[in-house]
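Hi, here's the filled form for the chain we discussed.

Project: internal
Contact: R.S.
Residues: 181
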Amino acid sequence: MPSRRSERGTTLIESMVAMVILLVGALGMMSLHSTGLRLQGEAREITRATAIAQDLMNQIQAWEYADVRLAEVNDANNRDVGDDAQLFNVYGTTPPFDHAEADLTAGGAGWTGISTAALTVGGFERYWNVTTVNPDGSIIDSAGNGLVDGMRIAVIVRWPQGGSWHRVVLHGFKVNPEDRL
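And the returned structure, exactly as it came back:
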């Protein structure tokens, strides 16, 4: 008959230690899962904002150069047309901009892009800044002929998240048809 000492098994303490290790691992995995879900939600918002900004930029490229929706109405943003200072991220403020949602149909123009109603679901706001000057204040005139080569355009789409705004900025350039190089 074999002795009891030669029979090996797990004790209650060994089983409890193994359970604690498994529990710590499971809690870590749950934390990673919730972080992954949060990042997936943020990525979805960024993707949607980028699509909204791209839609507006495509519409702008189809507008005539002299369209009233491309008028430079606020000189305060000329040096920072693309919001490098991240003023659009400050919650409770609206920084200087040239155009916003209400201007999409300015001058009786039609709008065929993403509708204003579609933006309200995520709290998205879209703005666009237009300037014909360089950041140093000189006009955009690489040919040196005294005619503006075109306009720098920045489309800014922002949405609330947490206690601040998040934003996507697209930059574009619209060539002045009067300045043929």
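Let me know if anything looks off before we file it.
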